[in-house]
Structure formats: C-alpha cells, structure tokens
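We treat protein structure as text, and this decision shapes the records that our systems exchange. Because each token names a local backbone shape, the row as a whole describes the fold. An entry from our holdings is shown next, in its original layout:
>
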Amino acid sequence: GAYLPNLRELKLNHSLLVSVRDLGTTLSSLRVLWMAHCGLSDLDGISSCSSLTELYMAYNSISDLSQLTWLDHLEILDLEGNNIEDIDQLQYLGLCGKLSRLTVEGNLICLKPSAGSAEEPDYNYRAEVKKLIPHLEYLDETPASQT
C-alpha cells in the first residue's frame, strides 16, 4: 500500500496467502479485491480495506463472517464454496447497508441452517437469507425476492 497508494483493484486468485493481514493496513483506496482459491480460513484483517465495494472470496475455507461488518461500502460479495455452516453468520452481512449482491451457493447453509442440525425438508435458505439481509437485491445471481 505504501508503494501503490492509489491502487483500486487487486486480483490475487490462487495465491498462497496465510491471512488477509498479509496485505497490510495501507490499502485504503482499494475498491475491488479478488482472493478466490487462496486457502484462507478467516477474514481477519479485511477491515483495513475499508473502501471495498466488491469482494470475491470464493472457494476458500471461511466460516466466520463477523469481520465483514466493518465494510460499510460493500455492495458485492462472493462467498461461494466456503465453509459457512451457520445461517446466523449472515446476520453480520445485514449490517453492510449497501450490500446488494451476495453469492453463497456451495456452502452448508444452503442445505441446513446449522452444522449440528439435520436437513429439514421445509428449509429454504433463500428465505432465511432474505430475512437476515432484507436490502439484498440478488442472491446467487437470482433476484433475492425469488424465494
């Protein structure tokens, strides 16, 4: 960040990163970040990228979404194919007031509400996500109103 203070987009897909913290704390102008297939297990340090409007974190091992509450400008979030096992984790995304597009397919929450629960035939993850993030416009690339 010290060498690229005006960096707006950063694509690190398939990189070997231990943590988002490895990016440092000076990427304050970063708007779009791609970190798919990086083997990340958490989002610690993402709050230092406070200007993000788009975040693509597909196919990692992320289960805790609490760090995303600090991203006030976030509009698009891709969490496809991660380890989100508890639908309640999405309540943190409800605090991202500008979030309009979310992708979570390929996570256990699409099959059942929590890791300890049995699969429920009447369970509809789309309806549950809409309750937790009422301002969401698109869920898994389909209008969120279609539950």
Q: What stands out?
A: The chain is about 5% helix and 15% strand. The chain has one domain: 9-143.
